[in-house]
């Protein structure tokens, strides 16, 4: 894409449809479309998860231990691509909020298993309702069949992209100085 967002805004305000180098409207550009949808989803889902310790990461921890069962802290960090030190602080916050608890691992008394509490399970149900409403808002222009197809196709593309270029450490992306293309 050759136009900046400021250029696009100025051109749109003048009634000129912004174009990419090929001459197609900017709305036909995959990068533009992915960026717009991601930005809207990130803002709306962030608001939906605002009261969860750790926000989206906290939700992922809660959802994972609820669906997969108890997990060792280090295994959970590796599965979610979270630095183990960051995971320790995140679990501290989730535990203080009463959403998870650390229990001794019967197979290795040095390790701790992360288990959702009843309060954590109830909170997860509420969070899933909020995220469903967020998805409905973001994908509101699609009917049910189109949403299903979109999700299935997007998942296929995402799995292939991740297989080619896996993200080894999601925490690195939080650093504004890191280029996602190099992680």
Helicity range? 55-70%
Q: Give the number of helices.
A: 8
Tell me about the largest β-sheet: 3 strands, antiparallel
CATH topology (level 3) name of the domain at 24-138: Arc Repressor Mutant, subunit A
* Strand/helix succession: HHHEHHEEHHH
Overall average residue pLDDT: 84
CA radius of gyration is 20 Å
Strand content: 5-15%
Number of strands: 3
Which CATH-level-2 architecture of the domain at 24-138? Orthogonal Bundle
> Which CATH class of the domain at 24-138 applies here?
Mainly Alpha
Instruction: Give the end-to-end Cα distance, rounded to a whole number of Å.
Output: 23 Å
Provide the spatial order of strands within the biggest beta sheet: 1-3-2
Q: Judging from the principal axes of the Cα atoms, what is the shape?
A: elongated
Helical/strand content category:
mainly alpha
Query: What is the CATH homology-level superfamily of the domain at 24-138?
Result: Winged helix-like DNA-binding domain superfamily/Winged helix DNA-binding domain
Q: Which spans have pLDDT < 50 for at least 5 consecutive residues?
A: none
Protein name: MarR family transcriptional regulator
Region (Disordered): 1-20
GO molecular function: DNA binding; DNA-binding transcription factor activity
Domain HTH marR-type: 27-159
């Amino acid at each position: 894409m050759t136009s900046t967002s400021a250029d696009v805004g100025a051109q749109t305000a003048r009634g000129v449809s912004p174009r990419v180098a090929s001459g197609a409207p900017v709305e036909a550009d995959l990068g533009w479309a992915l960026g717009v949808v991601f930005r809207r989803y990130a803002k709306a889902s962030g608001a939906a998860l605002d009261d969860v310790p750790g926000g989206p990461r906290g939700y992922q921890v809660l959802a994972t231990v609820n669906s997969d069962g108890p997990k060792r802290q280090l295994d959970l960090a590796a599965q979610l691509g979270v630095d183990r030190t960051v995971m320790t602080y995140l679990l501290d916050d989730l535990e203080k909020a009463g959403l998870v608890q650390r229990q001794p691992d019967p197979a290795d008394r040095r390790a701790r298993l992360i288990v959702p509490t009843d309060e954590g399970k109830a909170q997860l149900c509420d969070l899933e309702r909020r995220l469903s409403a967020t998805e409905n808002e973001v994908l509101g222009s699609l009917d049910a069949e189109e949403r299903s197809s979109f999700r299935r196709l997007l998942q296929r593309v995402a799995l292939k992209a991740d297989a080619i270029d896996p993200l080894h450490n999601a925490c690195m992306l939080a650093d504004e100085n890191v280029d996602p293309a190099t992680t």
